[in-house]
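Re: beginner question about structure tokens

> Can someone show what the tokenized structure looks like for a real chain? I only ever see the sequence side.

Sure, here's an example I had lying around. Input first:
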Amino acid sequence: MKIWIHRDSRLRRLLHLNARTYSTLQELEQLPDDTLQIIPLRYDETTFLEHIKRSQARVVLENIFEGSNTFVRMLEVSGLLKDTLNGRYATISTGEMPESINNCNIQYMMYLTGRKNESERHILNIYSQRLEQRHRPYTFLYLNNRVREHRAALLNEMERMQLLDGALWSHIPTGKTLPEEYEQDRDITHRTLVDWDQWEAGLMVERQYYDTYFSVQAESTVKLRYSMFSEKTWKPILGEHPFITLSGVNHYHNLRRMGFQTFDHVFGSEWQEMEPWQVRMQEMVSRIVRVVGPNLHDIMHDQETRKQAQHNLQQFWRWYDNYEIGINDSLSKFLEELVS
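And the corresponding structure tokens:
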């Protein structure tokens, strides 16, 4: 069975697929049924949607920027979720999917974040070289762009607890940006943050981490248990920051499976799998309250904390350096099983 993929797919440019290419709906419709067709699925692109629903070919739905809640919601909006859960379609994503979906998680956002910051790799060992005993002007870093219910809830809860008063934080939808000295003369708008050709959201700005003790983040997904690691997860690791994250319940477990350490000695671990997510969020905020106090500096310079932060940075670059070989092998096996 021959494999076909869209000519402009980043998947094609990244991986060494033995596949032929199409670019238009007309070309796709002319392909025989005994083919495997990798077709992009996007919110803003419905060109191929009716073909997907009618086709008798083996169809793989591809979106390497999304996974977990977002991809599931995209399938639902497109009217494809039921058939995907039933095995009619397979998926290629950058996150976990429900167990009944035949999915290949390629962790593309990890690779993309590494590529965005690779030119500065030689200076990214911030703590070991520059921060050893330095007092910083802000408690934690908290960056927000896209509006999501759980992010707004976390922001409001931290504001209620007066945690934002000493933090370095942004909320682009409401016009709350970082001071200019923390943006490296960049034009920070919603568009420049999410446009994949610019993707300013992916850049780890050293000073943001240099002047804060740890990172707080709300990942893209929280309502389902499945994990998706975006740049929000990876940038604190590149900045050698301890972190605490509001995310799906599998998030921390899957990070540890990948060999990363999660600062449980600082923030605890009992809260990480609490349900529903609102309870998890409230307990997360209580952990931040405990840490942000007179002993913050000593906690973040504790030997175990520094050891975990440095380990995570090294582990990230190990994953990045082996990414293309590993993902090529995984994807090749995934596609071979589909065509066999």
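Each token stands for a local structural state, so reading them left to right follows the chain. The chain has a mean pLDDT of 92.
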